[in-house]
Amino acid sequence: MTTGFRARRADRARDGADGAEPGRAPEVLVLLCSVGAAVATVAQPFALGRTLDLLLRDGGTGGAAGRWLALSAALLVGELLLDSLTSLFTGRCNAVWTASLRSRAFDGLLRAVPDRARPFTPGDVGTRLTLNAADAGGAPAARAALAASMVTPVGALAALAVVDVWVAACVLAGLPALALVLRTFARDTGASVAAYQDAQSQIASRLLEALEGAATIAAAGTGARERARVLEPLTPLAALGRHMWALHGRALGRSGVLVPLLILVATAVGGLRLASGALSVGELLAVCRYAQLTAGVGGAASLLGAVVRGREARNRTLALARVPALVHGTRRLPPAGPGELELRGVRVVRDGRQVLRVDGVRVPGGATAAVVGRSGAGKSVLAAVAGRLTDPDEGQVLLDGVPLDRLTRKALRTEVAYAFERPAPAEGTIAEVVAAGPRRVSPEQVGEACRAAGADGFVRRLPSGYDTPLSAAPLSGGEYQRLGLARAFAHAGRLLIMDDATSSLDTATEHEVDRALRHSVRPGTRLVVAHRPSVAARADLVIWLEDGGVRAVAPHRELWETADYRAVFGAGGAGAAAPGASTARRAEPEEARP
Ligand SMILES: Nc1ncnc2c1ncn2[C@@H]1O[C@H](COP(=O)(O)OP(=O)(O)OP(=O)(O)O)[C@@H](O)[C@H]1O
């Protein structure tokens, strides 16, 4: 018990750190209304019993019977009103809590170190933010209703003891069995609920993966296999569902036998007490009703189920809020710094494996550095570390001499811009999407950035031009990529990192974009992940990665002398032709050669 309490307190303390919880007011209102309704329910049999006794004694002529009858009616109306208010406040409480849990989970996800959020697939995140958040949001009201639901049986038992202690003793003797049924139900359901929610998440994740790869699946004709893969968790899900229904049914069945039995015994004892003259007819009526209400404790099973489900769902939803966040510092960058980038003793470990080791690499301010290497060499990890999308496990990355983790969030995000291979979909018109970001960007600057990224032409051809909603714009992969570039150009600070951001562009467009980048975009340092030798050739220096380490840092023309370097671009392996020789020329047109 103490351990459970401590665990709950620790949970609350940890959750508190995730963000503000909504006030307790909605929950308290549910509790007050439910308790009020329960009190009215408990008072009714007593009032009705007194009314009946007075009517039988006075034949309905006394004023007292009328007053008791009016009280009974008032209690009934009060109970109905309070029940309605309980429903109203329950809806409000559920909505407030669900919204709060969703916001906290979502904020946590946005604050998180992107790499740490990677284990949560989009489908899993969707399930946690929708189904799980709704279940978790319903728990506080269910908890209040569960607490209030104890008022009726406890109150009824107390009232029963006042009316007749013998009948109360009989009912009390049967209660431990009912409590045991409830406890077993709560314990057994907990584990199944967690596994059930996990299986739901798996189906959602697989479905989203399948939707993303729909074209590949259609082309490969593997639809049936994919369908089987997506629905694979359905079998354990169905088994878990059946198991939970069985648990529910068993709990209801057991309480369904125990409850009538208790009522029967109470009625029989009450009847004997009436026969012996210890109870009046009205009191017998009250006794029977109180026995019913006391045994109604079994009805708490469904509320208990909602509380258990909500607890598991809350853990799943708030797991998103607990993903480690990027903590920012308080320093600013020196004004008008050139954007010099330096990596000192940087080491990145993923899944226990070193995936990047870079020491003493410096990109002078205003220079363009190409990052090249075979697939899996660590280029994207380097790009992520260079702009602090993730922190290295060891070492430091400095921009104009300031470690990135000491910078304020604003300084970091205004001075370091990113463009990716696949820009994230965004809401709004094209102009709004390009303008969205840390800097204030005017419509003229949006146009300039789009021209530099080679996007202006196709944007103008859209029905509403720059005012076309992005979601309604039929864009090719390359066009979409160019909008991502335009956004990065519009917000370019002293460091611009392009991670495979021109991979879908044809060579001529890429060349134009490169020229515009030099002349029309705010000058600064560029770090460009490159797969084409043409890009490396135009850079001031190349950081050549191999198996997560730096093989060399030098201009492209020098590195091209090395056969291994040419092999990175598929331009012949070791022992291939010298620079400018036919193999290299065949592999890449004119501009590829130094
Ligand atoms: N979050 C992660 N968890 C485990 N391994 C990771 C993670 N991120 C990267 N890696 C591993 O680090 C290595 C480098 O990955 P990275 O994405 O930087 O390669 P890359 O050079 O950009 O490759 P490509 O050209 O194919 O995009 C890979 O072996 C990759 O599997």
Detailed description of the structure:
By secondary structure, the chain is α/β, with parallel strands linked by helices. The protein folds into 3 domains: 18-321, ABC transporter type 1, transmembrane domain (ABC transporter transmembrane region fold, Up-down Bundle); 341-559, Rossmann fold (3-Layer(aba) Sandwich); 560-594, no CATH class. Helix content is 63%, strand content 10%. The chain contains 23 helices and 11 strands. It has helices spanning 2-18, 25-58, 63-111, 114-117, 122-149, 151-163, 165-212, 214-220, 223-231, 234-275, 281-295, 300-321, 379-386, 409-415, 430-435, 443-452, 456-461, 477-490, 507-519, 533-538, 556-559, 563-568, 582-587; strands at residues 341-350, 353-358, 361-363, 368-373, 394-399, 402-403, 416-420, 495-499, 525-529, 541-546, 549-554. The strands form 2 sheets. The chain has a 6-stranded mixed sheet with strand order 7-8-9-4-10-11, with helices on both faces. Strands 1, 2, 3, 5 and 6 form a 5-stranded antiparallel sheet that branches. Strand 8, helix 19 and strand 9 form a beta-alpha-beta unit. The radius of gyration is 35 Å and the shape is elongated. The chain starts with a helix and ends in a 7-residue tail after the last helix. Bound molecules: adenosine-5'-triphosphate (ATP). GO terms for molecular function: ABC-type oligopeptide transporter activity; ATP binding; ATP hydrolysis activity. The chain crosses the membrane at residues 156-182, 251-270, 290-308. Residues 8-17, 585-594 have a biased composition (Basic and acidic residues).
